[in-house]
Design brief:
four-stranded antiparallel sheet, seven-stranded mixed sheet, mainly beta
Length: 122
């Protein structure tokens, strides 16, 4: 099995930056694609950013130009670089991935882990 662990969240002032990490562990062989979601209190999770197996990226309009999604296959880790943070970015951030599992034939969807809290406040 493959597990995902999000980290890197914290408290930051408006205009500041954070880099979130999504580390895959267990029987991971490689990461094909990864998504980042966020969840505001009392609301459903919403898609923030996507990177495909070919490296193409896509962003929600609310974060376009401020967030950057990337991956490091050598480390089996994905990242979400967040710049020019706003109070409305405050949420719990989750990652989800399509991976190659060394113990399973074919691609596997790995659901988000525990999430990491991002709080943007003065």
């Amino acid at each position: 099995q493959v597990q995902l662990v999000e980290s890197g969240g914290g408290l930051v002032q408006p205009g500041g930056s954070l880099r979130l990490s999504c580390a895959a562990s267990g029987s991971i062989f490689s990461i094909h694609a990864m998504d980042w979601y966020r969840q505001f209190p009392g609301k459903q999770r919403e898609l923030v950013a996507t990177i495909t197996s070919s490296g193409d990226t896509n962003y929600a309009d609310s974060v376009k130009g401020r967030f950057t999604i990337s991956r490091d296959n050598a480390k089996n880790t994905g990242y979400l670089q967040m710049d020019s943070l706003k109070p409305e970015d405050t949420a719990v951030y989750y990652c989800k991935a399509v991976v190659a599992d060394g113990l399973v034939a074919g691609p596997v969807i790995v659901s988000w882990g525990q999430g990491t809290q991002v709080t943007v406040s003065s």
